[in-house]
Amino acid sequence: MTLTKITIIEKISEKIAQSPPDAKDTLETLLEIMKSTLASGEDVMISGFGKFQVNEKAPRKGRNPATGMDMILDKRRVVVFKCSGVLRDQINTKL
Questions:
Q1: Interatomic CA distance for residues 93 and 86, integer angstroms
Q2: Domain identity same for 49 and 90
Q3: Same domain, 59 and 94
Q4: Are residues 86 and 70 in the same domain?
Q5: Residues 35, 36, 39, 45: is their CA dihedral positive or negative?
Q6: Helix (H, G, I), strand (E, B), or coil: what is residue 41?
Q7: Are residues 57 and 87 part of one domain?
Q8: In this structure, how many other beta carbons lie within 10 angstroms of the beta carbon of residue 84?
Q9: 30 with 9: CB under 8 angstroms?
């Protein structure tokens, strides 16, 4: 099962006895800080969890699968996540 934003809000609300609207504001603020940091090209590292990193992709040759025509795909930035050793160990102990 996938953890959704509403589920996270409910769990925050339960864990710290915060009203759901306050928990939603807390989560939204955290996500906005992370989005703006990543959009500026900076990394987000959360100790014990992992690192969100912005990588630059160079322009590359591609092909339109519908027409078969070759094309050049523009350079772009992508976000990658690398989990911390603590998280990796926690995930692997559940096996």
A1: 11
A2: yes
A3: yes
A4: yes
A5: negative
A6: coil
A7: yes
A8: 15
A9: no
C-alpha to C-alpha distance for 55 and 43, rounded to whole angstroms = 10
What is the span of the domain harbouring residue 91?
A: 43-95
3-state secondary structure of 46: strand
Render each residue's pLDDT in the chain as its tens digit; 95 residues.
899 999 999 999 999 999 999 999 999 999 999 999 999 999 999 999 999 999 999 999 999 999 999 999 999 999 999 999 999 999 998 66
**Rounded Cα distance, 89 and 86, in Å:** 5
Same domain assignment for residues 53 and 93: yes
In sequence order, the β-bridge partners of residue 50 are 46, 83
Same-domain status, 54 and 20: no
54 - beta bridge partners? 79
